[in-house]
Amino acid sequence: MNISTRGRYGLMAMTELAMRYGQGPVPLKTIAESQGLSDSYLEQLFAALRKASLVRSVRGAQGGYELGKPPEAISVGDVLRVLEGPLAPAECAIEGKDDFTHCGNPDRCMARSVWVRLRESIEKVVDSINLASLCEEARNQSGQGLMYYI
Amino acid sequence: MNISTRGRYGLMAMTELAMRYGQGPVPLKTIAESQGLSDSYLEQLFAALRKASLVRSVRGAQGGYELGKPPEAISVGDVLRVLEGPLAPAECAIEGKDDFTHCGNPDRCMARSVWVRLRESIEKVVDSINLASLCEEARNQSGQGLMYYI
DNA sequence: TGGATAGCCGAGCGGATTGCTCGGAATTGC
DNA sequence: GCAATTCCGAGCAATCCGCTCGGCTATCCA
To answer: How confident is the model at residue B105 (pLDDT cuts 50, 70, 90)?
Structure first.
């Protein structure tokens, strides 16, 4: 029951991009340093994000990545689904699939309704949070952090 | 973002035990055959379930396992936590842990609030479903299945 | 009393997944 | 043309998953 580093690092990087939205392309190296991640690993994740057009890339010197849409238009769910695949706790709960055979039970798996309810609840959360609101949270938190100066 | 076979098989087996609650101990072999699982694998899971006293064991011939409490008193969350560990999507969201260092960010991980909200929503679901209600669902479904007889 | 039926326990193991790294191309700004 | 970047594919060590196996112990029943 874990989100892998793909989803976690990817979301961190996307939030970073959201913080810098409208300031031109940001190179991966900058994101990686700022968040303490490996840039060669981030490369992989951004390949997927680009194919899903959640980010746009600018090649060459002074290039980098920027969000493909405004931060309000990108949800956490969008990012996680691209990087992690379907957000279902079990095969048989993936939306659109009516695959009962996976459960080992020839007729119906008694636990399936649990996985479906779990999936719905997970999707409700991640689809209701977008990058803009994450940014706002982050800015408020670092604002509180200012108390520790002086 | 997956529940492993430990959690899934374990929940299936526990639901089976709930269906037979009050009828004396059920051997693992019976559960395994009925659910189409491997009994030597189930053994491992039941070792953990027993230590958590979610099941009680009776050794020797005519022995087996039975629920440690009535089905209404055992939630899906109880079973999953024993078999899968903490139901958090990330280390930094485990209840009681205030471990920000895992996120790679020296100060605060911007994504943490997402993982915490996810965890809360997951726990709300699994803690609100108990084995008794799962049994009832199953009985209703197999009731509909009776249409296929004759 | 002895055999059959169970749980109990620990070790092991092949395959898949994770979390990277590396090298080298292609593209572009200066 | 050179430096900065994205792009792409391969590879790889470590870990985890999903089991299996062998042998022990406890208990019932004939």
So the answer is: low
CA–C1' B95–C15 (A): 33
Partner B contacted by A65 (CB < 8 A): no
Mark residues 61-80 of chain A whose C-beta is closer than 7 A to nucleic acid strand D: 61-65
In 10 A of CB B98, how many CB atoms? Answer: 7
**Do B20 and B137 touch, CB atoms closer than 8 A?**
no
Residue recorded with tokens 């969350």: B77
Give CA torsion, residues A46, A52, A55, A61, to 10 deg: 60
pLDDT digits 0-9 by tens, B106-133: 445 788 999 999 999 999 999 999 999 9
Minimal Cα–Cα distance from B80 to chain A, Å? 10
Q: Which residues of A touch B125 (CB under 8 A)?
A: 114, 117-118, 121
Write the class of the CATH domain B5-142: mainly alpha
pLDDT digits (tens, 9 = 90+) for A42-81: 999 999 999 999 999 999 999 999 999 999 999 999 999 9
